[in-house]
Amino acid sequence: MNRIVEKEYFSESVVKLVLEAPEIAKSRKAGHFVITRLGKKGERIPLTIAEADIEKWTITIIIQKVGVSSIKLANLEVGDNITDVVGPLGNPTHIEKVGTVLASGGGVGVAPLLPIVEAFKNAGNKIITVLAARKKELIILEEQMRNHSDEVIVMTDDGSYGKKGLVTHGMEEVIKREKVDLAITVGPAIMMKYVALLTKEYNIPTLASLNTIMVDGTGMCGACRITVGGKTKFVCVDGPEFDAHQVDFDEMLNRLNAYKHYEDKAYRTFLNKYRKA
Amino acid sequence: MDSSILAYLKKERDKEWRVELRNKLKAKDRTSMDRLDMPEEEPGFRNKNYVEVNKGLSEEQAIHEAQRCIDCANPTCIEGCPVGINIPKFVKKIEAGDFLGAAKTLKETNALPAVCGRVCPQEVQCEQTCFYTQKLKKPPVAIGNLERFAADYERNSGKISIPEVGSRNGIKVASVGSGPAGLAFAGDMIKMGYDVTVFEALHEIGGVLKYGIPEFRLPNKVVDIEVENLKQKGVKFITNYIVGKTGTIEDLRKQGFAAFLIGSGAGLPSFMNIPGENFIGIYSSNEYLTRINLMNAADPEYDTPVISGKYVAVIGGGNTAMDSVRTAKRIGAKRAMIIYRRSIEEMPARDEEIKHAQEEGIEFLNLNNPIEYFADEKGRVNKMKIQKMRLGEPDDSGRRRPVPIEGSEYTIDVDTVIVSVGVSPNPLIPQSMKELDVSSWGTIKVNKDTMQSSVPDVFAAGDIVRGGATVILAMGDGRKAAASMDRYIKDKVRSILSLVKEFNTIGDILSFANK
Ligand SMILES: Cc1cc2nc3c(=O)[nH]c(=O)nc-3n(C[C@H](O)[C@H](O)[C@H](O)COP(=O)(O)OP(=O)(O)OC[C@H]3O[C@@H](n4cnc5c(N)ncnc54)[C@H](O)[C@@H]3O)c2cc1C
Ligand code: FES
């Protein structure tokens, strides 16, 4: 049982939860994630650790309401408990000084990107961060990103904030302007796919942090498998970061939709119950 | 068997009650009795639910079956048991109607008799070395069914004998993993007075017994009761703790743990690396069984989904494959198939599982091997290409090697595929402990007599040492590791105490510490 000690709404659909998890707070590094289960009937879902506070023994997770499990989590209040939290999982990001790092984050992908950006900044890199979302309300953690970046470019699909356009537009501007040594991208699979296509064109080494469906998170099931460079890899133990130019994003997009039908149905049932309640 | 064990067995056998019981019925009358089959649920009923297939023997049936045992002077059955249960003694206790006594006898050597009575491959162990099989060429005494009977009787009686727990010595030891290896280890260590903590990565205790073996073969409550007993004796269980990730062995040493047992199992599923294997609807058996057994995915009340197709192909011939295919049938498959590249005789699954699967309407496509999967426009598997095989020359394992028949390829419709072609050891611990010696297979190397690894305070047991093996071997290893860990710790304590004697002043101690 892990108690929630703080809650903050970034937008109507994006929520930050700070929860007690002493061991995880102590062991985690940038790039790590946890798996949570809410209630005896809940499913196990992976969530990135956005921040950790070793003094307070807490970790921070950021949740976007997309389906039944994420809505249930996001509806928790301070003082509530999450039944199971296990981690830190995955391999930490390999941090080194490379020069200029172009980071791109979309939607809640900005949450996992934050500790990575922070670590690269601390290693002495120049950081340019591109944040993207559909509209202004969905841009999160901008201030925190600014604290750890030399420059932050905000892109919105509808132009309601920052510049109008896609994440790749913002990135290309930078790439044309100056030499980029490493690109890092975290966000929806479709966004990472296009980021990878762009940076490949310019021959910029690129890391993508993948968010596949998972069950155990320890390499036991293979639910998280994807193809990287023609080989099957398990995101939970071999990743979550991979060379974006080698990842088969189309396959990943497909696999992410494996349970779409079930999720939609569960979502409708849930909403009905929820409305009645 | 070693002579001291033989002497002990003889002494037990010569006890008055045993002699009396033997004389009650002539050996000839005993051997002319027929073996009683395990009562089972009807195939047409059970293949639609999770009810346990084997119903267990009644008291009368158990006594009848126990009477068949002639209480041999040379009990070869014991040689077939990986943990050396005193089989004639427990069987004769059943014959005498002392069912609780039988259970107690089992527990002297077997930490989980209710589990082993259900899942052990007795047909290649004790029942194979039984006098009936060996000399009379008749069906052996149903030792497994009797074991299960005694253990269930005890559990249902509510009079579980909780073995005496020795006085607490305050020494902390840990098990990594809560499968049969870890549970057996914990049971022995708590009995010897240690302060035992079991760390488990998942949110449930039991390892494969929980997430792998289905309810219809091993009900969860059987495992839960064993775990509950351990808790009552003082074993602490910590779930959601991945040793090597949440904390390392080194972190735990700092918290005062004196020694460790690694019982982390052989959890990593293998795939065949054939085209299309990552399409939607293709699972490893681990994922499929975990979703259904651990996460209750087939129950709409639970949030975890599972694709429960109508045309299900399970690739492989082991217990895991049988469990998967029988599960698929139960959650609604019209066609549930085993596809295995060798013949049925070579299938590693237990005979009973194969028989049950056949009765439940599972199709067996033996000497067939998948070579490619196809999918619809949404990436969901809808067809597979299969190649026929024939048996060639025997390979190193002595089994005849399957050879593809050129030009024999054909396709069938499938909407779910479960790949069950083996597992390899979980690398999390070895990765987090570079000083640990591992084989090229990824198993932890240990001294076979002590189960001690290359790191002196780290012992290992079960599938992480053997690759995929059995519950009873994992349990036996766990117990062996407990005994030798106890010696290791006591030796260490003794050598420290002997040093203390040499200290006369604080100065002595300080100068020792500086060294
Ligand atoms: C579907 C299936 C059917 C089977 N049927 C039979 C059968 O009929 N008869 C039979 O004898 N055998 C059978 N087996 C094999 C048998 O289950 C195994 O040999 C046995 O469970 C091995 O026990 P173990 O304790 O070594 O490991 P496991 O039972 O695998 O337990 C290991 C545990 O350790 C945990 N763990 C792993 N890494 C860590 C870590 N770093 N930190 C904390 N915890 C960790 C795992 O989550 C797991 O719970 C079957 C196996 C499967 C999968
Ligand atoms: S989530 Fe099960 S193997 Fe990665």
Summarize, please.
Chain A is of the alpha/beta class and 277 residues long.
Task: Provide a descriptive summary of the structure in words.
With 277 residues, chain A is of the alpha/beta class. Chain A has 2 domains: 2-89, Translation factors (Elongation Factor Tu (Ef-tu), domain 3, Beta Barrel); 100-256, Rossmann fold, CATH 3.40.50.80. In chain A, 31% of the residues lie in helices and 32% in strands. Chain A contains 9 helices and 16 strands. In chain A, the strands form 3 sheets. In chain A, strands 6-1-2-5-4-3-7 form a 7-stranded antiparallel sheet, sandwiched between helices. In chain A, helix 5 (167-177) runs parallel beside helix 6 (189-201) and helix 6 (189-201) packs antiparallel against helix 8. Chain B is α/β, with parallel strands linked by helices and 515 residues long. In chain B, helix 18 (351-359) links the parallel strand 8 (335-340) and strand 9 (363-366). Chain B folds into 3 domains: 13-157, Orthogonal Bundle (Fumarate Reductase Iron-sulfur Protein, Chain B, domain 2), CATH 1.10.1060.10; 172-267 and 425-499, FAD/NAD(P)-binding domain; 269-423, FAD/NAD(P)-binding domain. The longest helix of chain B has 32 residues, at 471-502. Chain B has 22 helices and 16 strands. Chain B has helices spanning 3-13, 16-24, 27-31, 43-46, 59-68, 76-79, 87-95, 99-109, 113-119, 131-136, 143-157, 180-191, 208-211, 220-233, 249-254, 285-294, 319-330, 351-359, 428-432, 463-466, 471-502, 506-514; strands at 172-176, 195-199, 236-238, 257-262, 268-269, 282-284, 311-315, 335-340, 363-366, 368-375, 381-394, 400-404, 410-413, 416-419, 423-424, 458-460. FE2/S2 (inorganic) cluster binds at residues 214-217, 219-224, 234, 236 of chain A. Residues 214-217, 219-224, 234, 236 of chain A line the site of FE2/S2 (inorganic) cluster.
